[in-house]
Design brief:
Layout (H helix, E strand, L loop, with lengths): L5 E14 L2 E14 L3 E5 L6 H8 L8 E10 L2 E2 L5 H7 L4 E4 L3 H4 L6 H10 L6 H14 L5 H4 L9 H12 L6 E5 L7 H18 L2 E6 L2 H7 L2 E6 L2 E7 H6 L4 H8 L50 E4 L2 E3 L4 H6 L12
Parallel strand pairs: 3-8, 3-9, 6-7, 7-8
Antiparallel strand pairs: 1-2, 1-4, 4-5, 9-10, 10-12, 11-12
Helix pairs in contact: 4-5, 4-7, 5-7, 7-8
Length: about 350
């Protein structure tokens, strides 16, 4: 179970990209915290700002065109945005590690798996190459790579997608980081391998005593592995709570739409999936008021006038919706809230 100690705090984070077409507000006022030994899920459609939030935490945003224009990212009280280059190099991979989205392109094709794994270890630990090699063997065994002495000298193209992702996980945990960020770690993998990778990450979390931020659009993954969930839409957090409350008492129309668009085993066969109508807005030209209102079946006049604040609906449960309290009270019968447009 997660402890109450906050290991990471993100406050009013804003990351913009300056393009020829205008300013893309990829992350626009994101705030959340991560506790020790906790798994935090960040969910939302493609383009909602999930990955940019993760890259901002490690200051991996390409500059230009990107820039973190406001906010604080506090790791155990220290603001990561105030670190110099040398401090960042020591910090990345050592205190916070990241598993990137595509295992097919994350490894260097001209170096062996062993060389890349040893490099990750030697960059942060004062040990000999022989010791780093032995530690590499231990890591490969820990993540389930067979015939490790032969595989140590193999190149990435000799590994399957699932095996490459296991190597990426081994590199990420090589220095026992406090936080592991997994940016859609199973996107390019088939369903069977996805389950194996996710279970492996869960097991390693227990062994390494680390906290995890898992970024995904798969609500099933969140339901099984996360303790708390932040739902994002168009660069902003729209709902934040414990996983059970998100699934059983959603109080933001976007979250409700996500729930309706997935298959439920506890529903009758006659119930069909209901997708969210419309498309996400352009982040260059955002509408006035609530960004989601043009796709929302519960929208009222107030939604077009101002953007709702992220407020606490019940203990630990936050929602950015003017009708959050009504949704929270009537989540079992949402039809009564519908309004004609």
């Amino acid at each position: 179970m997660p402890q109450n100690n906050k290991i990471l705090e993100v406050k009013n984070l804003k990351t913009y990209f300056y393009t020829d077409d205008g300013i893309v507000k990829a992350v626009d006022g994101v705030s959340f915290d991560l506790k020790e030994l906790e798994t935090l899920g960040i969910v939302g459609e493609t383009g909602s700002g999930k990955s940019v939030t993760a890259l901002s935490i490690l200051r991996l945003i390409p500059q230009p065109p990107g820039k973190i224009v406001d906010g604080e990212i506090l790791f155990k009280g220290q603001n990561i945005l105030d670190m110099n280059i040398k401090e960042l190099q020591d910090f990345r991979g050592n205190r916070i590690s990241m598993i990137f989205q595509d295992p097919m392109t994350s490894l260097n094709p001209v170096f062996t798996i062993g060389n890349q794994l040893m490099e990750a270890i030697l960059a942060h630990q004062t040990i000999t190459k022989k010791q780093a090699r032995e530690k590499s063997f231990q890591l490969l065994e820990m993540v389930g790579i067979p015939d490790i002495k032969r595989r140590f000298n193999s190149y990435p193209h000799e590994f399957s997608g699932g095996m490459r992702q296991r190597v990426m996980i081994a590199m990420a945990i090589a220095n026992n980081p406090d936080i592991l960020i997994a940016d859609e770690p199973t996107t390019a993998l088939d369903v069977t391998i996805q389950a194996q990778i996710l279970e492996l990450m869960h097991e390693l979390k227990e062994k390494t005593k680390s906290s995890i931020i898992i970024i995904t659009h798969d609500l099933g993954v969140v339901a099984k592995y996360a303790n708390r969930v932040m739902v994002m839409y168009a660069g902003k957090p729209v709902e934040f709570s414990e996983v059970d409350k998100i699934f059983y008492k959603p109080c933001h129309p976007y979250t409700i739409g996500l729930m309706r668009s997935i298959t439920r085993l506890d529903q009758e066969r006659k119930n069909v999936l209901k997708p969210i109508e419309g498309s996400p807005p352009s982040l260059i030209d955002l509408p006035i008021g609530c960004i989601f209102r043009v796709r929302c079946e519960f929208a009222v006049k107030q939604c077009s006038l101002s953007y709702p604040e992220l407020l606490e609906v019940s203990p630990g449960h936050y929602s950015a919706c003017f009708r959050a309290n009504e949704l929270f009270a009537g989540f079992k019968n949402l039809d009564f809230l519908k309004t004609k447009k």
